[in-house]
Amino acid sequence: MDRNEHPEENRHVFRPLSGKKILFGVTGGIACFKAAEYVRNLVKEGAEVEVILTKNARNFVTEHSFSALSGKRAETELFDPATCHEIPHISLARRADLLVVLPATADILAKFAHGIADDLLSTVFLSLTGPVLLFPSMNPDMYSHPATQANIHTLKKRGTEVVEPESGLVVCGARGKGRLPSWDTVLFRIKKALWQKNLEGKKILVTAGPTREAIDPVRFISNRSSGKMGFKLAEAASLRGAEVHLVAGPVSLERPGDVNFYTVESAKDMAEAVFSVSGQMDVIIMAAAVSDYAPQLKHENKIKKTGETLELKLARTTDILMNLGQEKPDWQILAGFCAESQNLVENAFSKLRKKNLDLIIANDITEPGAGFDSDTNRVIIIDAEENIEELPMLDKAEVAERILDKIVELMDLK
User: Fold this and answer.
1) Residues 216-234: pLDDT tens digits?
2) Residue 143 phi/psi, 5° resolution?
3) Looking at 32, 84, 172, 338, which residue is catalytic?
4) 340 with 366: CB under 8 angstroms?
5) Would you say residue 214 has pLDDT above 90?
6) Would residue 172 show up in a list of annotated catalytic residues for this protein?
7) Rounded to the nearest 10 degrees, how much is the dihedral formed by the CA atoms of 144, 146, 148, 151?
8) Which of 61, 216, 257, 334 is the S-S candidate for 188 at Cβ 3.0 to 4.6 Å?
9) What angle do CA 75, 104, 66 make, to 5 degrees?
10) Contact 361, 380 (CB under 8 A)
């Protein structure tokens, strides 16, 4: 059996939070049931999670559940005879890379804002010197109350990040702002708090997805690109502190956090969007699969079935990457993608030279797990000095990180 028949069995599992130590505070709100799920998810992402439950949280959940989910003893007491050999609030604070409080009730926000330290979690908060993420969740009227808003304002002013809750129907039947954010949002915020900001102050443009070239009002020419690689690149650049501009064709993906988002349809639309901002960018990564040809004529009405054959004349679209390469300033990094079904390295070298690129990322679309619409990819990264780095089959999120590592390296040389 060929190893490529089951690529999922051969790839390294990407755990982006591997080695990160997260202190997770749970307070007394109904959303603490969600907290249990999020703790389990963080462990799956590779994080080492230690949980602190307040007295009121234990009215909803038990420390035993969180101990089982985290693999570590859940802490509840400021003074615990079992840990008399150490000072719990100091030792917990010292070994944490990040404190997350989810849900953060109005009570704990008030304590944090006013420096009240009357339990383990509030005392840990005052002892911590690292980053803190608070996820408020409560009745919408409690959240919007001037006292709660004043406490949030005070915390933000001191540098504590408070993530706004989502709007919708809450457990008590009220409707408004007070719901916990989705897991994807929580994970993004946690990663952003922990990621190295080696692209801070840089502007990065990423393109993603396919384009659609209209034949008539209901038909179009397109390709199988899902946009997943481009979206992962945009998210990874945002996590590293960059100002990210993402130009995306028609995709069915959730917009990454903290990006300037542009939606386009055709190759012409994408060219206009890219050229409107390209001169301001430090880095441009063209991950989109832009149509090379478009119908010469778009029919105003739906084409009727009238014969055995239909002739469709196509014309070349603007080569966006070629134009960017010709106009590229010396300080700008330009990276392109090369999806091939044969002669991968040869075609990648040709495109690299012809289009004046600093970097090209090539992949064989015929390889299982490395083609369009996959969560994984196996790529070859080639720079302008013709150095080749061949990556194994990886999650596209990890491929994105490896590409950005290379871009950071190139930026340091410019």
Assistant:
1) 999 999 999 999 999 999 9
2) -65, -40
3) 172
4) no
5) yes
6) yes
7) 140
8) 257
9) 35
10) yes
Shortest CA distance to 204 belongs to which of 158, 235, 174, 180?
235
**Quick one: what percent of the chain has pLDDT higher than 90?**
74
* Arithmetic mean of pLDDT, 125-141: 93
Residue 243 contacts residue 260 (beta carbons within 8 Å): yes
More confident residue, 306 or 268: 268
Q: How far apart are CA 188 and CA 41, in angstroms?
A: 13
Check whether 7 has a pLDDT greater than 50. no
Determine the average pLDDT of the residues in 266-276: 97
Task: Name the residue among 193, 184, 196, 202 with its Cα closest to residue 255.
Answer: 184
- Between the alpha carbon of residue 39 and those of residues 107, 136, 239, the distances in Å are 22, 16, 21
Domains in the chain and their CATH numbers?
A: 21-194 (3.40.50.1950), 203-413 (3.40.50.10300)
Query: Which tokens belong to 88?
Result: 């719990």
Residue 67 CA from chain centroid, whole number: 28
Cβ contacts of 20 within 8 Å, gap of 6 or more: 46, 47, 48, 97, 98, 194
pTM of the predicted model as reported, rounded to 2 decimal places: 0.90
CB 212 within 8 A of CB 270: no
Phi-psi region of 159 (alpha: psi -120 to 50; beta: other; left: phi over 0): left
Q: Which residues is 207 bridged to in the sheet?
A: 247, 286
Task: Give the CA diameter of the chain.
Answer: 88
The count of other CB atoms within 10 Å of the CB of residue 358 is: 23
DSSP 3-state of 363: strand
pLDDT of residue 2: 47
Q: Pairing between strand 333-340 and 283-286?
A: parallel
Question: Is the pLDDT at 183 greater than 90, yes or no?
Answer: yes
Q: Which long-range contacts (CB under 8 A, 24 or more apart) does 329-334 make?
A: 329/279, 330/414, 331/282, 331/414, 332/281, 332/282, 332/283, 332/284, 333/282, 333/283, 333/284, 333/358, 333/359, 333/407, 333/410, 333/411, 333/414, 334/283, 334/284, 334/286, 334/358, 334/359
Q: Of the segments 220-224, 245-249, 250-254, 390-394, which one has the largest average pLDDT value? A: 245-249
